[in-house]
Amino acid sequence: MAGTLFTPEVLTGVLATGIRLASPLLYAALGEMFAQRSGVFNLGVEGIMLMGAFTSFLVAFSTGNLWLGLLAAMMVGLLMGLLMAFVSVSLRAKQGISGIGIYILGWGLSALFFRLTLGSITTVSGFEPVSISVLSQLPFLGPVLFRQNILVYLALILVPVSAIILSRTTLGLQIKAVGENPEAVDSLGVNVYGIRYLCVTLGGIMAGLGGAFLTIGQMNMFVDNVTAGRGFIAIALVYFGRWNPFGILGGALLFSVLDALQMWVQVLGVALPYELLVMLPYVLTIVVLALAVGRAGGPAALGKPYVRGGA
Amino acid sequence: MKNAIWLQRRSIFLNLLVPILAVLVAFAVGAILLLMAGANPLVAYKPLFFGAFGSRFGITETLVKATPLLLVGLGITIAYRGNVLNIGAEGQLIAGTVVCTWVALAFHLPGALLLVLAMLAGSLAGALWGAVPGLLKARLGANEILITVMMNSIALLGLGYLIRGPMIDQEAVAFGTGYPQSALIPPAAWLPKLSQTRLHFGFLIALLCAALVYIFLWRTALGYQIRAVGANPEASRYAGIDVPRNIVVAMFLSGALAGLAGAIEVLGVHHRLLDGISAGYGFTGIVVALFGKLHPLGTVPAAFLFGALLVGADMMQRAVGIPAGLVNAVQGLVVVFVVSSEIFTQRRG
User: Fold this and answer.
1) Domain A2-124+149-292 belongs to what topology?
2) Contacts of B285 in chain A (CB under 8 A)
3) What is the ipTM of this complex?
4) What are phi and psi of A149, to 5 degrees?
5) Reduced to 3 states, what is the DSSP secondary structure of residue B303?
């Protein structure tokens, strides 16, 4: 069995699949990283992803234009991000609970609209892999990295872009400062609420993109609860990656390659109940959370609503 | 003094008003959403609101659904009072159904004894399923919200595996049907019915639990400690309260109530283990707890209301084909509104 499992073809397949599976997690987790860096814990990512997944599918299905679908998912993500920002920043609601509300809302809405509009499971032809000319001919690296769809490339590019924004721009410094010590930053004239609104809304847009990836970049269909917990896993990856884009990339890849391996084991027909294999990513997330969180790290003002002029 | 009484009255009034307003606004938003999707909200809402009260069946069915909602809501209340955000009631409930069914099938005991044993075993299973994230939070500081969400998925997949594998009804398989469900538990271990409907004795157990949770939280030292830790962990630590231990205890009890809800679903309603046995009670229970303002006596009417809503949703889906997902969306809005409105009800000072 081990012999048939670890042929070079399978290894390439597992890694290529892993990178593809990592992309929706990357979108959602990088967005959540910005929200958390600014001090807001957005637990509604799963619900926003579900709405992004549904909206992009519906628009792509009815217009035949995948890019419009993507845009629609970003719009819905923006709106739900704004709602989360309004509730948690302006109304200073308990962030864990309000996020759960957003999650249940997105879950119910996506299921409701799916039944009312499409009614049954249909498919679209989603984003096709784009081979990058010479690079895709490279042995091993070619099929793993350079024969992916465009959304995968975009997700990978967003990692260094996020890192540069965070560490090399004024905005990035302000975001980090707002998440660490909002009182001090406020006294310097930085708009704390504005930065938090921006980050949470950006997180919403990215979660919408992550959801869109699932339906029009990976599965080419929408089913109820298509995200299957990926929004929550993305939040766990933010902890695992220590609020750092490259750390998040590492976590997403590790996680997704193991997930891909689990899928290949199923495909190869190894006699293990599939429920137990599908369970592995969730078990892994718990292990990751238990080991990685510890006490150090994390923005100091994470989860604490800010009141101008003191409470 | 007079002012203080007025403030107190005002706060009680607001505490009652806000959840009701939240539900009304949520339904108004729901109507707009239905219009956007091209459905007529009036057609949808008629069976949704009147389905539960239009018949004897509707009323008893509401109480059948209120039973697990009340138990789960009480458990969530204990956890949230201790500042532990337990999202894992769904998984804890499923753990309860699995172990309860297993005990009821595996042990050959006199009916009443088997019933009690299976109920306690289910409750214990939920308690342990809840204590794991409690321990991880208390000892390592791991985020309990994410861990309980993951444990929901694990429980759901575990249930799917068990009813297709080790726990599948062997007689049905031999007979050639082989639905993914367990064998029926012995009728002697079923919870007695309260009337000629599906309403069962478990409803009274749930009401009793509401009283017990109230006494626990407000009349015992342990309950006081949990509330103190929830209100102010730093101060509690200085006062000599063992904060980590209270987190674990709160999650254990929270899970025990969800597990009990699962056991009662098996013993009183389904009499076997099957797919979708929880029907999302673990999530609706969160809404029930928040709507009940995290007070055991508030959860009772909240459980009735959302039980009625679930019954109405079934009827709406059957009568006019509006999917029950609408009720989920409304529940999400209720949570958002209730939690956002705290800024208006809390006294500043």
Assistant:
1) ABC transporter involved in vitamin B12 uptake, BtuC (1.10.3470)
2) none
3) 0.88
4) -85, 170
5) helix
**Which residue is it, tokens 């059948």?**
B64
- B209-241 residue pLDDT tens: 999 999 999 999 999 999 999 988 889 999 999
Amino acid, res. B125: A
- Please report whether residue B342 resides in a domain: no
Q: pTM (2 decimals)?
A: 0.91
Rounded to a whole number, what is the distance in Å from the CA of A103 to chain B's nearest CA? 7
Is B150 within 8 Å of A229 when comparing Cβ atoms? yes
Q: What is the pLDDT of residues B55-76, one digit of tens each?
A: 888 889 999 999 999 999 999 9
Amino acid, res. B217: L
Task: Please list the residues that pair with B193 across neighbouring strands.
Answer: B200
Q: With beta carbons under 8 A apart, name residues in chain A contacting B332.
A: 47, 101-109
Length of chain A: 311
Contact check, Cβ <8 Å, B287/A275:
no
The sign of the CA dihedral A282, A287, A289, A290 is positive
CB of A249 within 8 A of CB of A19? no
**Is residue B242 in a domain?**
yes
Q: CA of B335: which chain A residue's CA is closest?
A: A101
DSSP string for B230-261 = HH-HHHHHHTT--HHHHHHHHHHHHHHHHHHH
Please state, in angstroms and rounded to a whole number, the distance separating the CA atoms of residues A95 and A182. 17
